[in-house]
Specification:
Cofactor: Zn(2+)
InterPro entries: DHOase, DHOase/Allantoinase_Hydrolase, DHOase_cat, Dihydroorotase_CS, Metal-dep_hydrolase_composite, Metal_Hydrolase
Function: Catalyzes the reversible cyclization of carbamoyl aspartate to dihydroorotate.
Catalytic activity: (S)-dihydroorotate + H2O = N-carbamoyl-L-aspartate + H(+)
Distance between the termini: 21 Å
Number of domains: 2
Pathway: Pyrimidine metabolism; UMP biosynthesis via de novo pathway; (S)-dihydroorotate from bicarbonate: step 3/3
Structural class: alpha/beta
Bound molecules: zinc ion
């Protein structure tokens, strides 16, 4: 067996700080300092690049099994690596649904075989996402995939008794229920944010209260049973207020915001272009401001992509019939740079906290989201914040092309991603 290749990363600005060298060897950061060298090591020039810990996504749709025409574990994890991710949580709404130990182990194994980033399956809360009875939460937690995050994402666990039972059940293994907060009766046939514009466009509205009512209820339930709640894709100013209130009470509630909700507004629906159709919908400029402020002050704990690939036949149709969702793994860090860093709301240490450390902590991952320090796992992203590019959907490595940023100029570029010291991306290309 040949020894694994070593890498000396020269002069990276660690979390945006002073230029530092990193020696990556045997899967860990063996040394950090100035003037490092090692015999036989490949040198990676990182002058001008920011080094961040490998990003962790709490909310990715890989579509396999069942919709391999939209994405596979292989293509989705490669897209993740290109975006700087070293771990992604794969949502459970596949076909079959990830509601048994067998399916979550299958997804976990496919991730290991692909090798581009670690895949951590999310288990369904209810059998078949049907919202009627609890799935085998304990068996999924005990499986090789060691599931700790459970979600019916795509659907809301709207039955309060079931939600209470799920919150009670996951306490046994320190799990968390990640809720897709959408009151179903208030959102029947909803197409876009409810407001003056939805009325003018003749598209059925998705009111903010449909999200906020479920979040408020679930915060109260989580507090009542003393369990962990995570709120998926927070999209309204009112939701940020409710999460802030729950945290002030000392309750174990965390929340995520998606890059598209930090940048885009419901005005885009006026184009009737379903590329902008997403659940929860794009909201108002005031909501965008509140989300940014909430992410900056830590009310919103993490950025999660909700990467939702769809084949063109499901998106290239009229608004009403098009699928909800947009891809986002490859553009997440540039969007966060544009909306949070370039605006002065977050520094790079803050980005590392919200895109690596906190999502790993919420998912109870022990070997991701770690600091960049000697002895730590060598999950490293090298990022050039001074670069810029115009998004061309044809260049995405995801199998699907449904990016809302086509033709937009975005800042930054992921130059390299290392998973346990092995490059998955080098020179901005798959390694
Ligand atoms: Zn989702």
């Amino acid at each position: 067996m040949t020894a694994e290749k070593q890498y000396v990363v020269k002069g990276a600005a660690v979390l945006g700080g002073e230029p530092t060298d990193l020696l990556l060897r045997d899967g860990v950061i063996a040394e950090m300092g100035r003037g490092l060298s090692a015999v036989g090591a490949e040198v990676v020039d990182a002058a001008g690049l920011v080094a961040l810990p490998g990003l962790v996504d709490l909310h990715t749709h890989l579509r396999e099994p069942g919709r391999e025409d939209a994405e596979t574990v292989e293509t989705g994890t490669l897209a993740a690596a290109m975006g700087g991710f070293t771990a992604v949580h794969a949502m459970a709404n596949t076909d079959p649904v990830a509601d048994t130990a067998g399916v979550v182990e299958q997804v976990w194994r496919l991730g290991r075989e692909a090798g581009h980033c670690d895949v951590i399956p999310v288990g369904a809360v209810t059998v078949g996402l049907a919202g009627e009875r609890l799935a085998e939460l304990g068996a999924m937690a005990d499986s090789a995939a060691r599931v700790r995050v459970f979600s019916d994402d795509g659907k809301c666990v709207s039955d309060a008794v079931l939600m209470r039972r799920a919150l009670e059940y996951v306490k046994a293994f320190d799990g968390v229920v990640a809720q897709h907060a959408q009151e179903p009766r208030l959102t029947e046939d909803a197409q876009m944010n409810e407001g003056e514009l939805s009325g003018r466009l003749g598209l059925r509205g998705w009111p903010a209260v449909a999200e906020e009512a479920i979040i408020a209820r679930d915060c109260l339930l989580a507090a009542h049973v003393g369990s962990r709640l995570h709120v998926c894709h927070v999209s309204t100013a009112g939701s940020v207020e409710i999460v802030r209130w729950a945290k002030a009470k000392g309750w174990d509630v965390t929340a995520e915001a998606c890059p598209h909700h930090l940048l885009l507004t419901d005005e885009l629906a006026a184009t009737y272009d379903p590329i902008y159709k997403v659940n929860p919908p794009l909201r108002s400029a005031a909501d965008v401001e509140a989300l940014r402020a909430g992410l900056a002050d830590g009310t919103i704990d993490v950025v999660a992509t909700d990467h939702a690939p769809h084949p063109h036949e499901d998106k290239d149709c009229e608004w009403q019939t098009a699928a909800f969702g947009m891809i986002g793994l490859e553009t997440a860090l540039p969007i966060v740079q544009q909306t949070m860093v370039d605006t002065g709301l977050l520094d790079w240490a803050g980005v590392a906290q919200r895109m690596s450390a906190m999502p790993a902590r919420i998912g109870r991952l022990t070997d991701h989201g770690r600091p960049l320090a000697a002895g730590e796992p060598a999950h490293v992203v090298l990022y050039d914040p001074a670069a810029s590019y115009v998004v061309d959907p044809a260049e995405t490595v995801s199998l699907s092309r449904n990016t809302p940023y086509a033709g937009r100029e975005l800042p930054g570029r992921v130059v390299a991603t290392f998973l346990r010291g092995r490059p998955t991306v080098l020179d901005g290309k798959p390694a």
